[in-house]
């Protein structure tokens, strides 16, 4: 047996079954409690699950079960729990697990949508019809456009009235669920979206006939769909079309056959852009149609819409407008420069020059003829009896181009013949010139019309989108009518921005070309042409002429002229990108020093951006935008002292502290900071009755010493309390350091001295007296400022004793006595003992005053009170720190992440909704057989240089290794050798998190889940929850960090680092946060051959199971191959998860496929099979070499709000996300790749999105509008070879279908790049070859023709043009060298040198 195939697994009847005849679901029904579920147990709403507390979930489930008086499907035993999806499955023959999958899909989506919808009194516990109607409109929008394009009436028969009845709601649900069921079982057909529209069109009609109780024309009985029965949809609808795709792929000979010899996914799909699909395929699908014929050119349906031909001419054919512009300007510039006048406009004053310039029209007409020949030569195979008009247009375009060339040539000749005859510009010559211009005006009329429509883009969009036959006839001559590529014009504002960019760029390029490239070549050219007496040592190609020499001189210049626009684009895009970044407030905080200046406003910025703002949600329109802008301005520059509001709002301060400390704790989990740095960076929550925000010690370092210095400098001032306090308050951190130190000292002294003793009363009275002097501004008048230094020294001594492992109470008593003596003499007015006793500042009994005052009054807190001693250590750091700690944290990655996160909160980002009201989203990662977790042998095995992976990682991440070992020792490791035994799992994870492994990606993506749980808690928690919870976290966190090395930790650190369940905020969760986070987020890893790994007992299968066990939101989708007999193999898309209650992996869904998964490129096929298991409004595509950060995950709900904002005339369909390349430190080559990639993913993509409006999809941190894409072909294309760069085709497809791609730099995702020379070389080769295939593709051709001129320029120079011009640079070097070689060896150069008359001119060449 093939190891990839295995016998059917032992399954209950609940998986992979169908709606069989005369039975229920496979004859048996499992008990509801035994049926596994994915996210929500919809099958059993009485089950205790956090998601069931939402009324929206119950409302949608109830709406689905309200089948009403629908006719029950025949041959199926209908039972009470069945719902609308079961009804559709029974009638149309869908698989049961497909029905189960889509049931959860639609319940989750509609429930989430209703949560976001404003609450309605009429629909508190029922499904809101508006929510359902909006979803149907979005889901079926592509189908509706398809029907309109083909002139067909939609078969979705639903009333558009707002006051919908219950029957209308049932219809809404039926038509919506039908599309999802078709999509969920379509397998590879999901890459051909209009084919799905065709299938849905006919199945929706059958559904209408069932609903209308139409009788069958043949039997007279109630109508039954033509494709019904067990697995009918898969076997009779999907499989026939799948098989023809499979045969065509086989005809490609693994991609080696010419693209024109076989039909790819796009050809199959574009067959359904024509009305002949209805005539040929019919319904049910006629498998005898010539659509299914694969042999013989006369019978089969060949290429549709476009033929991919390998030729360099594709660059000219796809971007002909660019090359026409460059060639015509070159011709005109040479003509004008030939006159050798000062400025070009001076030369144009001559009528002769003006007329010669008109020869560009002859060239233009000739170029049109070349274009028509290329069109005919590459697309002739599209012509058939169904496309006669296409062939006619090809012929007519060639004939018309020839005619124009002849007309212009004749008219031009007539002008000069008359002028030469009259020997002047006579009236007849001018008349003939006018005739030429009139003909030229007719010739360029289409271009003038295009210019007018460019200025008025909405008219162009209207003409292209409106499916009126008159518009089709008007545009028939200019372009082929296609379903995509219509209405691509942007709004007027965007038009002005990218037009201005290109006008400036082109003006610079043409000025440079004329004055510094073309004009300096004219004089040498004339000199060479006049050069005589050349003794050719080689063959003289042209008798008595040096034209070959002139050509060789001009060739490098022309090549540079054709490619240097790429350089000008790079220059101006850098300037524009820098400007856009400047106005976006990027890079304002680049290091810890700059963060110190802004951190006091950081809490307010976090509160403003990451916490829901109800008052802002109620504001609308321009008022909201203005208020938002003013608020951001205040935050950015500290206007209005925003930190004062946080200080006065204890709940807001605690929320900020919880979030910040969670970030720091995760930094520690990742080992990028040490335990000591945690104490310096964390923000202690409210404790010890401290009145101000307790900023991290990092910010308070040295501030108390500076305040003491300021106080002692004013020793001679009598009454200057306000002046001193004013100076201190100029620095917010200094003010907080003084107040926190004072409050902490007061609390600490009262804590360590027994309550009820006379000493305790004395301390309290001392502080009361000091407080009174501060309140009355008499502190400096009352006390000696120089004595503060003595008191400060005694306090440091006291804290040193308290923070020692072994506490010596006698020494503490001695220090307290000395401290009391200093405080007693602190007053400027010397007071007697009696006076001190009167005020309660001295003991009342003389016997006590003779002995040690605190001898029997000190009671130190128990050693187990870790919270107290943690605060004492913080106080000691505030009192003793004398440097600015600019190197904290020491790890560069930690600094970068803190700086980026803090800077992003001062940028313009959307406000965060509550987690319950945010858009739901999924993350999808394709995985094949890469490393999951490094194994022990992998880490220890040395290469030929004697270097192991672990040794290399220890040297690259030296500080992180120290932090890791420190953490291991804190968690119970005694001997370092235990790292290979008791702590082996932690070691393997540590190394894997620093490689490009699946475990690193999973850890990063699960930060979304962890962040959503925390944010859900903060959204719903009361003030009491947050206040009391903050104290609990502070106490428990201190105990955990300061616990003895007794090995008593409950869970292994690896588990903690993966799930984060035991993190600080996780201690406060009530349970509902888990349900909320699961409803909003799902992570699916498409482990294509996970089934094979399990069958072989591969280590990777065990590691993937470990990841599922420790990440409850993680799901794994794979393709299972099940042997049926000797020859037959069945293929299934399977979704599994780890059940925490059963403590094992469980299978959730098993959807049968029509055949092998991989027909096209592997990665998009892997994504496609798993996408049916994703959930939510958006899906983020993440590669296996990527990472994520917790602090960035906090901003995901802000990012998803971008879908509600219009960018230009469209809302986004792809949200571009910034990438950080984390492999830059591995090697010098890796650093180069990192710098190269960083420049593109930041500055480059920033400009592409704004102002150029041509950003596509270049990688995998981007977030897709999920329902928009699932109805339009998915998130990538998969045709063999042509779509080798599958990612970018998602952007091409998005733009052609009217989507909008934006770029957002306030959030980032980590990405690994190739680090070795061979790897980098292979990657560059893949990108370059992928670009070579793009040039052949229909997507690039259509974008080159359907985008307006300036967006076309942007598109060319950022995709195809970059690689083409790189090749041009190489060719220029060769042309120059070979040209110089010819001049040197042919004897021409000697003749030039010997010709003294022209030496100066020739020297210029």
From TrEMBL:
The chain crosses the membrane at residues 322-341, 353-374, 394-415, 436-459, 498-516, 545-562, 1355-1377. Keywords: Cell membrane, Cell shape, Cell wall biogenesis/degradation, Glycosyltransferase, Membrane, Transferase, Transmembrane, Transmembrane helix. Residues 1-27 are annotated as: Disordered. The keyword Lyase does not apply. It is an enzyme of class 2 (transferase). Residues 170-286 form the 1,3-beta-glucan synthase component FKS1-like domain. This is 1,3-beta-glucan synthase. It comes from Tetracentron sinense (Spur-leaf).
């Amino acid at each position: 047996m093939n190891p990839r195939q295995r016998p059917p697994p032992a399954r209950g009847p609940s998986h992979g079954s169908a709606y069989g005849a005369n039975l229920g679901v496979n004859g048996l029904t499992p008990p509801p409690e035994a049926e596994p579920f994915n996210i929500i147990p919809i099958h059993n709403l009485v089950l205790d699950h956090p998601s069931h507390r939402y009324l929206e979930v119950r409302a949608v489930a109830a709406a689905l079960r309200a089948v009403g008086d629908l006719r029950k499907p025949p041959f199926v035993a209908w039972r009470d729990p069945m719902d609308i999806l079961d009804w559709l499955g029974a009638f149309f023959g869908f698989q049961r697990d497909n029905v189960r999958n889509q049931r959860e899909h639609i319940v989750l989506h509609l429930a989430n949508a209703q949560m976001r919808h404003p609450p309605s009194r009429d629909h508190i516990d029922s499904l809101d019809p508006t929510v359902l109607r909006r979803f149907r409109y979005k889901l079926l929008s592509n189908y509706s456009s398809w029907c309109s394009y083909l002139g067909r009436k939609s078969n979705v028969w639903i009333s558009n009235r707002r006051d919908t009845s219950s029957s209308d709601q049932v219809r809404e649900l039926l038509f919506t669920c039908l599309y999802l069921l078709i999509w969920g079982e379509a397998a590879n057909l999901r890459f051909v979206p209009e084919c799905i529209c065709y299938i849905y069109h006919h199945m929706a009609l059958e559904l209408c006939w069932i609903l209308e109780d139409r009788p069958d024309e043949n039997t007279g009985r109630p109508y039954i769909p033509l494709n019904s029965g067990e697995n009918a949809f898969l076997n009779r609808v999907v499989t026939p079309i799948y098989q023809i795709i499979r045969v065509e792929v086989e005809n490609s000979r693994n991609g080696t056959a010419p693209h024109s010899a076989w039909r790819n996914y796009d050809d199959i799909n574009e067959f359904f852009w024509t009305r002949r699909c209805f005539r040929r395929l019919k319904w049910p699908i006629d498998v005898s149609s010539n659509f299914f014929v694969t042999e013989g050119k006369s019978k089969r349906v060949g290429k549709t819409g476009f033929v991919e031909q390998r030729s360099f001419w594709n660059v000219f054919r796809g971007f002909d407008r660019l090359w026409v512009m460059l060639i015509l300007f070159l011709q005109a510039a040479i003509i004008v420069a030939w006159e050798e006048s000062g400025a070009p406009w001076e030369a144009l004053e001559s009528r002769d020059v003006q007329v010669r310039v008109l020869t560009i029209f002859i060239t233009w007409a000739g170029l049109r003829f070349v274009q028509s020949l290329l069109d005919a030569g590459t697309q002739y195979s599209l012509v058939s009896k169904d496309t006669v008009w296409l062939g006619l247009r090809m012929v007519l375009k060639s004939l018309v181009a020839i005619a124009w060339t002849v007309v212009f040539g004749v008219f031009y000749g007539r002008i000069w013949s008359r002028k030469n005859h009259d020997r002047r510009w006579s009236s007849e010559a001018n008349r003939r010139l006018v005739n030429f211009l009139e003909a030229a005006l007719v010739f360029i009329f289409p271009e003038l019309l295009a210019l007018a429509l460019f200025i008025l883009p909405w008219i162009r969009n209207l003409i292209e989108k409106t499916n009126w036959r008159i518009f089709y006839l008007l545009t028939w001559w200019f372009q082929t009518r296609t379903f995509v590529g219509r209405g691509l014009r942007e709004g007027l504002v965007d038009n002005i921005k990218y037009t201005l960019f290109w006008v400036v760029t082109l003006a610079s390029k043409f000025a440079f070309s004329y004055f510094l490239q073309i004009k300096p070549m004219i004089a040498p050219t004339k000199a060479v042409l006049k050069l005589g007496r050349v003794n050719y040592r080689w063959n003289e190609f042209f008798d008595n002429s040096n034209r070959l020499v002139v050509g060789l001189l001009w060739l490098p210049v022309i090549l540079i002229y054709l490619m240097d626009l790429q350089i000008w684009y790079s220059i101006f895009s850098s300037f524009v990108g820098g400007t856009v970044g400047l106005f976006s407030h990027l890079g304002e905080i680049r290091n810890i020093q700059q963060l110190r200046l802004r951190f006091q406003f950081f809490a307010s910025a976090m509160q403003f951006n990451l916490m829901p703002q109800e008052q802002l949600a109620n504001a609308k329109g321009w008022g909201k935008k203005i208020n938002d802008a003013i608020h951001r301005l205040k935050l950015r520059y500290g206007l209005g002292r925003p930190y004062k509001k946080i200080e006065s709002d204890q709940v807001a301060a605690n929320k900020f502290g919880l979030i910040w400390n969670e970030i720091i704790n995760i930094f520690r989990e990742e080992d990028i900071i040490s335990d000591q740095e945690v104490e310096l960076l964390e923000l202690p929550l409210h404790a010890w009755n401290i009145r101000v925000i307790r900023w991290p010690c990092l910010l308070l370092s040295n501030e108390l010493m500076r305040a003491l210095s300021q106080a002692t400098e004013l020793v001679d001032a009598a009454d200057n309390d306000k002046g001193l306090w004013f100076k201190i308050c100029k620095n917010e951190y200094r003010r907080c350091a003084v107040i926190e130190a004072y409050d902490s000292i007061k609390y600490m002294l009262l804590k360590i001295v027994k309550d009820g003793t006379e000493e305790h009363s004395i301390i309290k009275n001392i502080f009361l007296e000091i407080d009174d002097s501060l309140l009355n501004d008499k502190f400096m008048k009352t006390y000696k400022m120089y004595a503060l230094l003595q008191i400060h020294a005694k306090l440091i001594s006291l804290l040193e004793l308290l923070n020692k492992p072994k506490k010596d109470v006698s020494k503490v008593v001695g220090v307290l006595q000395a401290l009391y003596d200093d405080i007693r003499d602190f007053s400027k007015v010397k007071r007697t003992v009696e006076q001190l006793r009167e005020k309660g500042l001295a003991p009342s009994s003389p016997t006590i005053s003779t002995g040690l005052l605190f001898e029997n009054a000190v009671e130190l807190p128990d050693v187990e009170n870790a919270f107290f001693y943690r605060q004492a250590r913080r106080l000691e750091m505030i009192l003793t720190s004398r440097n600015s700690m600019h190197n904290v944290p020491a790890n560069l990655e930690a600094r970068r992440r803190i700086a980026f996160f803090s800077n992003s909160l001062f940028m313009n980002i959307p406000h965060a909704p509550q987690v319950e009201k945010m858009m739901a989203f999924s993350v999808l990662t394709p995985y094949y057989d890469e490393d999951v977790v490094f194994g022990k042998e992998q880490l220890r095995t040395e290469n030929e240089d004697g270097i192991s992976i672990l040794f290399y990682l220890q040297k690259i991440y030296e500080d992180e290794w120290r932090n890791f070992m420190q953490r291991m020792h804190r968690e119970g490791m005694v001997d370092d050798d235990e790292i290979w035994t008791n702590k082996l799992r932690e070691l393997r994870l540590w190394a894997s998190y620093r490689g490009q492994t699946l475990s690193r990606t999973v850890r990063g993506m699960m930060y979304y889940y962890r962040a959503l749980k925390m944010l859900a808690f903060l959204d719903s928690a009361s003030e009491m929850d947050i206040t009391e919870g903050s104290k609990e976290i502070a106490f428990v966190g201190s105990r955990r960090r300061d616990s003895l090395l007794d090995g008593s930790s409950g869970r292994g650190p690896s588990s903690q680092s993966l799930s984060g369940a035991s993190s600080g905020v996780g201690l406060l969760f009530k349970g509902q946060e888990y349900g909320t986070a699961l409803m909003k987020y799902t992570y699916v890893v498409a482990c294509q051959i996970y089934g094979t790994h399990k069958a072989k007992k591969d280590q990777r299968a065990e590691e993937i199971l470990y990841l599922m066990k420790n990440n409850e939101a993680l799901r794994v989708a794979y393709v299972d191959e099940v042997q049926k007999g000797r020859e037959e193999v069945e293929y299934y898309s399977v979704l599994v998860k780890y059940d925490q209650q059963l403590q094992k992996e469980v299978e959730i869904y098993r959807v049968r496929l029509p055949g092998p998964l991989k027909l096209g490129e592997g990665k998009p096929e892997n994504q496609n099979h798993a996408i049916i298991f994703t959930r939510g409004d958006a899906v983020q595509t993440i590669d296996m070499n990527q990472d994520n950060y917790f602090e960035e995950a906090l901003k995901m709900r802000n990012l998803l709000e971008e879908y509600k904002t219009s960018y230009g005339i469209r809302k986004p369909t792809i949200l571009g996300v910034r990438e950080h390349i984390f492999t830059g430190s591995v090697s010098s080559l890796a650093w180069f790749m990192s710098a190269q990639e960083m420049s593109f993913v930041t500055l480059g993509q920033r400009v592409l999105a704004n102002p150029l409006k041509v950003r596509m999809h270049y990688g995998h941190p981007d977030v897709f509008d999920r329902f928009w894409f699932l109805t339009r072909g998915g998130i990538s294309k998969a045709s063999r070879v042509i779509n080798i760069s599958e990612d970018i085709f998602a952007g091409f497809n998005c733009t052609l279908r009217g989507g909008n791609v934006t770029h957002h730099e306030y959030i980032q995702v980590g990405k690994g790049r190739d680090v070795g020379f061979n790897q980098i070389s292979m990657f560059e080769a893949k990108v370059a070859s992928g670009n070579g295939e793009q040039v052949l593709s229909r997507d690039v051709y259509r974008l080159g023709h359907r985008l307006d001129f300036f967006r076309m320029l942007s598109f060319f120079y950022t995709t195809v043009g970059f690689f083409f011009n790189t090749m041009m640079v190489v060719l220029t070097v060769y042309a120059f060298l070979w040209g110089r070689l010819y001049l040197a060896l042919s004897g021409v150069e000697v003749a030039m040198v010997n010709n003294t008359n022209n030496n100066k001119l020739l020297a210029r060449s």
